[in-house]
Write a structure and sequence with these properties.
This protein is of the alpha/beta class. Helices cover 29% and strands 16% of the residues. It folds into two domains: 57 residues, no CATH class; 126 residues, Rossmann fold (3-Layer(aba) Sandwich).
Length: 195
């Protein structure tokens, strides 16, 4: 199964960003044309003739991979990624790891299995915004049944539909909220409604 999954992530097409890559992959999974697509990366929107404008979309193959991972929570916090000046607040949390994996051309579109395995056993996924008013990490935390934690001043445009926490507030894990978040994610950020 993993070999088939990883082959999905090998493509000769050059993608500008994860959003374009994920959207094209999700369309291909439904056997829909994925050549004529538009991406509004800043506002987290995708367009194709078959979908019109939809919010950020995750492919089913990633969801299936994450679904099969154990979700028993063994640690409190996790973040792995690039630390820009507006993300310095992350460094005080245990489970913080600086990494350029997603920015490295050699690994950019390869599945970081260890990242998802670790996030799946974490109660709180640290999900700072970056250059855009939303974050992939927010959705990855939701997929892994972790509660997203955003910066105290972050204004994530997708957060209002979810239970999330902020840096500097009390953090309390709620598995029922995680289950509700996951259902909201499946409804809003996949193409399941087109099956």
């Amino acid at each position: 199964m993993l070999h088939k999954f990883l082959s999905l992530f090998r493509s000769k097409r050059r993608y500008k960003n994860f959003q374009e890559y994920f959207f094209a992959t999700a369309l291909a999974e439904l056997k829909l044309p994925n050549d004529d697509i538009e991406i509004d990366h800043y506002n987290g929107r995708c367009w194709s003739p078959k979908t019109d404008w939809v919010p950020v979309v995750f492919p089913e193959k990633i969801i299936a991979f994450v679904d099969q991972l154990p979700k028993k929570k063994l640690q409190d916090y996790f973040f792995r990624g690039f630390v820009s000046s507006n993300r310095k607040w992350l460094e005080k949390y245990p489970g913080f790891e600086s990494s350029n994996y997603g920015r490295d051309r050699q690994t950019r579109f390869k599945l970081d299995e260890d990242y998802y395995r670790t996030l799946s056993v974490t109660r709180y996924g640290l999900a700072p915004i970056g250059d855009c008013p939303w974050s992939y990490r927010f959705f990855e935390a939701v997929m892994c049944h972790s509660i997203p934690v955003i910066g105290k001043d972050d204004q994530d445009i997708f957060a209002e539909d979810y239970v999330y926490l902020r840096d500097g507030t009390d953090h309390s894990y709620d598995s029922a909220a995680c289950a509700d978040n996951y259902q909201t994610f499946l409804k809003n950020h996949t193409l399941r409604h087109m099956r």
